[in-house]
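Hi R.,

Here's the chain you asked about this morning:
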Amino acid sequence: MKLMHRGLATAGLAAALATASPPARALVTLEDGADKIFVTGTAGIAYNSNVFQNSGSGGSITYSSSLGIEFVRRAGWIGVNASLVWNFTEYAKYSAQNFADPTFTTEFDKSTGRTTGALTLIVQKQNRSDVDVNTIDASWNYTAGLTARYPVIDRYSFVGGVNYSYTDYSDQKLFSNLSQVAANLDLYYILSDERDLFAGYRYRYSESSNVSSDVDHDVYAGISGRIIPGINGSLSVGYQIRLPYEHDMTAGGTEGDYSVAGSATYNFDKKTTLTGTLSKDFGVTATAVSIDTETATLNATYAYNAKYSVFATVGGGETRFLGVNGEVTTGGPQRLDYNLTWSVGLAYTLNEHFKATLTYTYVRNWSNLNIADFPGNTLSLNLSSRW
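And the predicted structure, written out as tokens:
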């Protein structure tokens, strides 16, 4: 799975948590309320001191906006959620990086009956500042996924899924297209009304256009619901093995390490919420290098009243670059990155139709690859509306 830029992901998590509110009333309602249509829009301005996420990058003011339409249907056995969003960004200094990117998402879900599940289809054009390759990459991303849950007997259920994704990069000379197939099967056991235990297995096959491929196996177990008194979420720990194969068969070596996936929330009171996430997993960069990444984030949100809230996020992690393609120099040490990021912000919600968020984010990446050793900071103001 392609990894998001770590600093932006943390800032995005904070902003999302800070501005969360009940869904707006639909702009258009049809079929006695079964069909609803929403229109969304955003506008923002930001200054990013390190646009390309490398030691030689400069900064720029950016202007961003988006316009989207959402369709929701709740009638019969199958529900439908569909959206089309167009994102626009202009750089004051690096105009060659300006983009207009569409995202189309549709989901068909079945939430009643013995077997439940969802089919999701996503087509997205994306421009992102990628810390793993230390530049901006542009790509078309295609994803199709099917998930299902089937209760076997009173306390036991099987939960499984199949996912296919394909990433098609615009710059074929610098980047390698990536296709992935993943499948998982989990067994859930209802321990109590508040807590489930589960164990499962995931298979994932990744293939890059440079004729390299990887297979990884992950066996894990975890808990969902109330992890401990006062903390709710999901946490799993496992062990995974990655088998890399290169076209010249010189990359060598099976990689094995523990895996972690978790998210948990603790409510101090009605106004203050803490949310933490943990992740450790294998991945593939845009240049077809296998990586082992672990991250942790902690977000605190304080809702002063119905209109104002403040938030702060701190996070960090480590990324190991694997195989011969992950060497800093030929025959030399593997590239190794450490990162730290923190952000603070203020959110204002006028009503269900208008929100504003002011965020400052600082990112520091340490690396034994000189170009990947850099600081960066971003100050952004974002406005959003949904009707």
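Residues 106 and 315 are 32 Å apart (CA to CA).

Let me know if you need anything else.
M.
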